[in-house]
Amino acid sequence: MTDLILTLSGISKSFPGVRALHNVSLELYPGQVTALIGENGAGKSTLVKTLTGIYQPDEGEIRVKGEVVTLPTAISASDAGITAIHQETVLFDELSVAENIYLGHAPRNRLGMIDWKTMRNEAQKTLDAMAAGIDAGIPLKELGIAKKHLVAVARALSVDAQVVIMDEPTAALSQKEIEELYVLVELLKQDGKAILFISHKFDEIFRICDRFTVFRDGEMVGKGFIKDTPENEIVKLMVGRSVDHIFPQREAVIGGTVLEVKGLSHPTEFEDISFEVRKGEILGFYGLVGAGRSEVMQAVFGMTQIASGAIVLDGKAIAPKSPADAVEAGIVYVPEERGKQGVITGEPIYRNVSLPSLDKTSRGGFLRMAEEFALARTYTERLDLRASSLSQNVSTLSGGNQQKVVIAKWLATLPKVIILDEPTKGIDIGSKAAVHEFMGELVSQGLSVIMVSSELPEILGMSDRVVVMREGHIIETLENKNLQPETLVRLAAGIAKEKAA
Amino acid sequence: MTDTTATGRHLPDRLDNPVKSAVLSWESLLVLVALAIFIANSFASPYFLNEWSLSDMTFNFTEKALIALAMALVIITGEIDLSVASIIALASTMMGLALQVGADTPMLVAVGIGVGILCGAFNGFLITGLKLPSIVVTIGTMSLFRGVAYIVLGDQSFKGYPASFSWFGQGYVFWVISFELVLFLVCALIFYVVLHHTNFGRRVFAIGNNATAARFSGVRVDRIKFVLFCLTGLMSGLAAVLLTARLGSTRPSIAEGFELEAVTMVVLGGVSILGGSGTIIGVVLAALIMGLVTFGLGLLNVPGIVMSIFIGSLLIVVIALPILFRMWRQRKA
């Protein structure tokens, strides 16, 4: 046990309404790569933020080389020898490579000024040792994302970090760049660093990791050696159904096709997307973050323009050029980014709800406040909105209640198809259940629902059929009957079926 | 309405008392300030309290205030139009050219307003069509429009506008009530109704509070912004008609600095420079205050340069006040 570099034990962290981490533990060993595996929302990011001094745990202790440490700030985490390389590297474009490597711990001369020459030379030495092929003197912005990762690694080496956290480092890289990154990971291993590697991609986890730790719903559910553990075992640990949330039982009465999407393509985000939604159906869209699901939905909603393809609603071809067109046609979209795209913060509840329905509540373009309040009241009360009055500013509502305002806004337009993008992301359990129950009600009234979700229980608990997307393509469309979570994870992550292992 | 209370939770329309919030509003503060300046003026100068002096006072702000009405809507959406004074210069120059080729009064008015709308549409196209930031576009067109006026006129001026045309800037509808003042009050009423009582106004506020979410809510953001820039163009064209008629001549330097005074009126009127909030009543009161102050200073023979120092300081203070107030409230909380 003495050779453990980092030990976490009994770490808990809660946010209002959400338990992000509950009594989790983690061990990191020198010269070894430990994979941190879990679904979106399992608590991986919270753990990284706890380790880098951004969040303070409510309970538990962090030990570095056996000594208990507290990490109240990002600097103290760095002093404790913990450094992180993020998916989108957090470096400074306008500074030189050497400055980026030595920011905050630059060598100084006798006068206490930065010793530029030494800094530049040391930076170059570190880069050369990595065979990075980067000139330490050039500004960082001249480098591509992969080279920026190299600079981040050089920074990790130069601060003499004991623990290197790599948070989805390959997400933005090409295959060749990924190979180069693997070499670096080897280099860090030889250097005796303890590496925490966070990734959704099983192929790279099996390629470079030595150990694994699995998180689910904020708890540590399993750990072990990669080479002793078959892939499907890890997948099972990852998805094991959580029992504290029961999805509404409903009898699906499914009618004819309402919305048909044919061969939708976008220059960069997705290609040849075809699916259909029927009356009274919930169609789930599952995939990893970045699979292109939101982009497809925003194209159907008229937010982004498509290169080719057709959208047919109720037998009529439509080509929405803006959300206004889509709303008029009867397609509405509840965006994932509630604060930025969903609610208009700074405006009261009733104005948020009535905004797309103003033509209905007004007469000849003139507002009629009584009608407006009545409309807002009808739909917010149906959703059991918790607020003190309809004039309350939406920015003072909790995430779950803001989501209810967004949904109320769209229901008031009497849509045919409602698209929900990660409808319960970041909202408390109570509101989650309310949203799920309401989705059941909507389809029973003959609406068609498309639900984009990265949460397996939600996908399996709510959908009638599930579309799985990966890297901008539809991989498969499945009936949700005896559907195994493992199947979805395999399809989404691109893992070959049941290997002999 | 009957089955909606089934959930047992009833949401009232509002909890705050509308009378109380009206008393504590920025607008009521502006009323007090206007009264104070009015009283101060009447003590400062024996010539102030006279119906003709007060009538003259209104000419100090009507043209700028007409622009401020439209500018208020633009600023509420989070944009700005700094080219308004140059639109006046160009519109006035074009009216002068039209006069040279024998245009009559209705034609002159049409040219002034038409050029204004075209200039506004040009701004609107650059901002919504090409997605350029409005502050950059309108600083550019500020130079461009006035530059054209200078090319046409050089150091010359157009004179000889017909008397029927001069009436727009010099005529009185009734007693000491000028045509300019009546036109401004009518426009203010129209803008008040449009901003506070129509779907269009509601969407303007939504855009200012969160343009992305407004677009996601089915608001045609670009179309509305385009219309608003055309509207400031139109109001600038109208101001060009009034100002040209009042001065009786067109020089390329006409209306210089109007844009800052219009913006100051809007911001002093309580419109957030960041967009999303404001009232027409506030803008009208701010216009009145600006008119009272500059007229009072004029009666005291304060030179023009001091007035421009005053307006510049006022602009900074009224922008800083709400920010300081918020900081103070946060520290208290």
TrEMBL record, chain A:
SMART domains: AAA
Subcellular location: Cell membrane
Gene3D superfamilies xref list: P-loop containing nucleotide triphosphate hydrolases
Ranges for domain ABC transporter: 6-242, 253-496
Domain of life: Bacteria
Topology of this chain in the membrane: Peripheral membrane protein
CDD domains according to UniProt: ABC_Carb_Monos_I, ABC_Carb_Monos_II
Keyword Membrane: yes
Main location: membrane
An example Gene Ontology molecular-function term: ATP binding
Cell membrane is among the record's keywords: yes
Entry GO terms, CC: plasma membrane
Keywords for this protein: ATP-binding, Cell membrane, Membrane, Nucleotide-binding, Repeat, Sugar transport, Translocase, Transport
Family: Belongs to the ABC transporter superfamily.
Protein name as annotated: D-ribose transporter ATP-binding protein
Organism: Devosia riboflavina
From TrEMBL, chain B:
MF-aspect GO terms: transmembrane transporter activity
Gene Ontology CC terms, in alphabetical order: plasma membrane
Stated role: Part of the ABC transporter complex LsrABCD involved in autoinducer 2 (AI-2) import. Probably responsible for the translocation of the substrate across the membrane.
Tagged with keyword Acyltransferase: no
Assigned keywords, A-Z: Cell inner membrane, Cell membrane, Membrane, Transmembrane, Transmembrane helix, Transport
Membrane topology qualifier: Multi-pass membrane protein
Localization per record: Cell membrane
Subunit structure: The complex is composed of two ATP-binding proteins (LsrA), two transmembrane proteins (LsrC and LsrD) and a solute-binding protein (LsrB).
Spans through the membrane: 23-44, 65-95, 107-127, 134-153, 173-195, 226-245, 257-274, 281-299, 305-325
Primary localization: membrane
Taxonomic classification: Bacteria, Pseudomonadati, Pseudomonadota, Alphaproteobacteria, Hyphomicrobiales
UniProt name for this protein: Autoinducer 2 import system permease protein LsrD
InterPro entries: ABC_transp_permease
